[in-house]
Amino acid sequence: MFLLIREIKYFTNFNNKMYQFLLFFQPLMILSIVYFLKQVRGDINSDKFVLASALISMWSYVLYSSGSALISQKWNDTLKLLIAAPVSLFAVILTKALSNSVIALISMILSFIYARFIFQFNIGIANYGYFLLSIVVLIFSLSVVGLILAIVFVASQNVFDFQNLILTPMILLCGVFIPVEQFPVVLKLIAYLIPMTWGIKSVQDTLVLSPFMFSSMAVSIVVSLIYLFLAYFIVKKIEVVLRKTGSLGAI
């Protein structure tokens, strides 16, 4: 809770301009493109693209904020202090990833506000209760993905290059624009192994009250829990190695 409050305070102080762009202006830019496409073609599914705008901004924020959670501590030479602190490193990273996912929800809310009041798009949410439940599932899957990214990127010296590299492929691979069912078999298998794929699918299913929406939520939770347990053991291993060698290069 303390880390969540600190993250929100950091966010509202506008200390990081990139995060402000991702949350406030990126949805506006994407929706502007959708608006002009609709003016030209007139037959696009605006509901789908309004949701896509929100999902892209949420993923972008989680990628750059949670993905840099540990590497920023490493650059500031405070990672050793976290290791030495009487608090689990896993709990610190998970709380930070969760807070970033909650903050990323702002972009979804703003996307809907922009779509309704600026671009006059109708947002067809069939059942708000189911939709909110799917959002909770999505936030959990984003938190787990953010946790994994923080662990993976801490060993990289060119973290921003890797973040930029996977930004768009993950958007496509997780079915934001094209349903995963239409992918080739190999890509489909890879996509189904990503927790965020099922979180996104559960949100998309609840928009149209698909009979598979609860199945998508259940699979998203199970897959996310599997990765969460794996991340727990990896972080514990990192803690042991760091305390034994006293060197971050051991990662």
Keyword list:
251 residues, 11 helices, globular, single chain
Structure, explained:
It is a single chain. The protein has helices spanning 2-12, 17-41, 46-66, 69-75, 79-84, 89-118, 128-153, 159-173, 185-192, 195-207, 213-245. With 251 residues, it is mainly alpha-helical. The chain has one domain. Helix 2 (17-41) runs antiparallel to helix 3 (46-66) and helix 7 runs antiparallel to helix 10 (195-207). The mean pLDDT is 83.
Helix and strand topology:
Blueprint: H1 2-12, H2 17-41, H3 46-66, H4 69-75, H5 79-84, H6 89-118, H7 128-153, H8 159-173, H9 185-192, H10 195-207, H11 213-245
Helix pairs in contact: 1-6, 2-3, 2-6, 3-6, 3-7, 3-8, 6-7, 7-10, 7-11, 10-11
Instruction: Provide the structure class.
Output: mainly alpha
Give the number of DSSP strands: 0
Order of helices and strands: HHHHHHHHHHH
Q: How many domains?
A: 1
Note the main sheet: none
The overall pLDDT, averaged over residues, is 83
Helix content: over 70%
What's the short story on this structure?
This protein is mostly helical.
